[in-house]
């Protein structure tokens, strides 16, 4: 397993759990040392336990550098970051470097698997960077969600394998035999496109939901009722229909931008997807507009509940909470924030406190930006007493609106009046 980020570590720990011998490599020496001691650097339900189980059984080990992991491997998974370049394109430098590093060390007969999210043509790119035309490179995109990564790995909706080499595809399929999900074998371009298409569709669904919420506000409808009824149509589905402050994370924004760039490079203007991204930027601004509708922002103190991009993770990459906070700061507000999983952020001006009540104390507006359960169970009397004014902008629709109104708060959710 080359790379011990979300994907590599989850995949490695899960394969060890399934009985395989797994060696995980990373270039970060400190991280490897921590992992060897069972210290998992990310907040992911069940992952620390699986890593401990793998270390204990001897089936999971950690080394520095890809070259040290691959010599005896039957399968080599490339799980390195593929960040967004300046123009929205995918930066493949880590992938190329990892492939070049392992090139001469991979044993004949092994299969190299692209698990990172990579544009069409990347199996060939890896083959070339390895300098090995004798090694099959297969695309096997991951569909894990942070917060439920292990369950998603062990019970996936599907396993997608893209290869022009049927024997190599079968070898990768065999690894998933115990998992019981449909295995779909296709060509590399289709497998690679599937990953972007899935994330682009999810992003589209969320931008649609958030814009429907805006329509609901305009016409006096309740988005919760509208979406619950819409979701009963099996063609639409109940999942992924929660309105929010905008969508974020390390994947959806990057992959949405990437598919626009990939399509552009191939001569197609993906204008629908551009609209999806614009709607998301608008959503951050709409949340700030709600705050500005109840308080004059310059000098105002805003209590922000939530920094992670969603509940169940400590990941703040492209977090809507931070997008909202940055806009508030830019308009002269002061932001005091609390998140149960995030102790600090790298943004000047956001004061991170270690208690939700410390975030709301003396604030004029309370903004809920991440849907942590504990935020819906806060002591509202305590908050009412300590705030300088009683206003709530509930960008996740998780607070008890009636309970807030009865304590003299103004309440604004998303898509509900
Ligand atoms: C996403 C995809 O859901 C995974 O299938 C994919 O494998 C992964 O990216 C990836 O490419 O690695 P993840 O980034 O963990 O997973 O996050 P999501 O659960 O998709 O949430 C993304 C954003 O949408 C978050 O900000 C979340 O709060 C928001 N969201 C999600 C909503 O606002 N409403 C919803 O109903 C669901």
How would you portray this structure in words?
- By secondary structure, this protein is α/β, with parallel strands linked by helices.
- The protein folds into 2 domains: about 5-185, NAD(P)-binding Rossmann-like Domain (Rossmann fold), CATH 3.40.50; about 220-415, 3-Layer(aba) Sandwich (Rossmann fold), CATH 3.40.50.720.
- The chain is built from 16 helices and 13 strands.
- It has helices at about 5-15, 30-35, 45-55, 65-70, 95-100, 120-130, 150-155, 165-175, 190-220, 225-230, 250-265, 270-290, 320-330, 355-360, 380-385, 400-405, and strands at about 20-25, 60-65, 75-80, 110-115, 135-140, 160, 185, 300-305, 335-340, 350, 365-370, 390-395, 410.
- Helix 13 (about 320-330) links the parallel strand 8 (about 300-305) and strand 9 (about 335-340).
- Helix 9 packs across helix 11 (about 250-265) and helix 9 (about 190-220) packs parallel to helix 12 (about 270-290).
- The protein starts with 5 loop residues before the first helix and ends in a 5-residue tail after the last strand.
- The relative contact order is 0.09.
- Uridine-5'-diphosphate-glucuronic acid (UGA) binds near residues 143, 144, 251 and 320.
In short:
By secondary structure, the chain is α/β, with parallel strands linked by helices. Helices cover 42% and strands 13% of the residues. It is built from 16 helices and 13 strands.
Broad structural category: alpha/beta
SSE topology string:
HEHHEHEHEHEHEHEHHHHEHEEHEHEHE
Shape label: globular
| CATH homologous superfamily placement of the largest domain | NAD(P)-binding Rossmann-like Domain
| Average residue-wise pLDDT | 96
| Largest β sheet strand count, sense and barrel closure | 6 strands, parallel
């Amino acid at each position: 397993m080359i790379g011990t980020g979300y994907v590599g570590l989850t995949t490695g720990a899960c394969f060890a759990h399934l009985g395989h011998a797994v060696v995980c490599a990373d270039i970060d020496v400190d991280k490897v040392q921590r992992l060897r001691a069972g210290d998992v650097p990310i907040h992911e339900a069940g992952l620390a336990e699986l890593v401990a189980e793998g270390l204990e059984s001897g089936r999971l080990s950690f080394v520095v550098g890809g070259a040290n992991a691959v010599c005896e491997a039957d399968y080599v998974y490339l799980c390195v970051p593929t960040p967004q370049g300046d123009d929205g394109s995918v930066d493949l430098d880590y992938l190329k470097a990892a492939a070049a590093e392992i090139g001469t060390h991979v044993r004949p007969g092994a299969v190299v698997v692209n698990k990172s999210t990579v544009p069409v043509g990347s199996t060939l790119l890896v083959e070339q960077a390895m300098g090995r035309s004798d090694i099959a490179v297969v695309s096997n995109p991951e569909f894990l969600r942070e917060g439920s990564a292990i369950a998603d790995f062990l019970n996936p909706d599907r396993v997608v394998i893209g290869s022009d080499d049927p024997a190599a595809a079968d070898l990768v399929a065999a690894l998933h035999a115990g998992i019981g999900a449909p295995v779909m074998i296709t060509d590399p371009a289709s497998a690679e496109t599937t990953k972007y298409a899935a994330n682009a569709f999810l992003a589209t669904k969320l931008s649609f939901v958030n814009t429907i919420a805006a329509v609901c506000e305009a016409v006096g409808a309740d988005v919760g009722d509208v979406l619950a009824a819409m979701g009963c149509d099996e063609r639409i589905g109940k999942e992924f229909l929660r309105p929010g402050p905008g969508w974020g994370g390390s994947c959806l924004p990057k992959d949405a931008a990437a598919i626009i760039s990939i399509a552009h490079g191939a001569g197609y203007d993906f204008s629908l997807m551009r609209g999806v991204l614009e709607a998301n930027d608008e959503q951050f601004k709409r949340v700030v507009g709600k705050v500005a509708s109840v308080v004059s922002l310059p000098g105002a103190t805003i209590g922000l509940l939530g920094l992670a991009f969603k509940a169940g993770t400590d990941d703040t990459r492209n977090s809507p909470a931070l997008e909202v906070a940055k806009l508030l700061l830019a308009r002269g507000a002061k932001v005091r924030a609390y998140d149960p999983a995030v102790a600090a952020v790298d943004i000047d001006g956001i004061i991170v406190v270690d208690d939700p009540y410390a975030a709301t104390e003396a604030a004029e507006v309370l903004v809920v930006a991440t849907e942590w359960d504990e935020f819906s169970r806060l002591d509202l009397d305590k908050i009412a007493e300590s705030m300088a004014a009683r206003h709530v902008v509930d960008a996740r629709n998780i607070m008890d609106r009636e309970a807030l109104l009865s304590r003299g708060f103004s309440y604004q959710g998303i898509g509900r009046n």
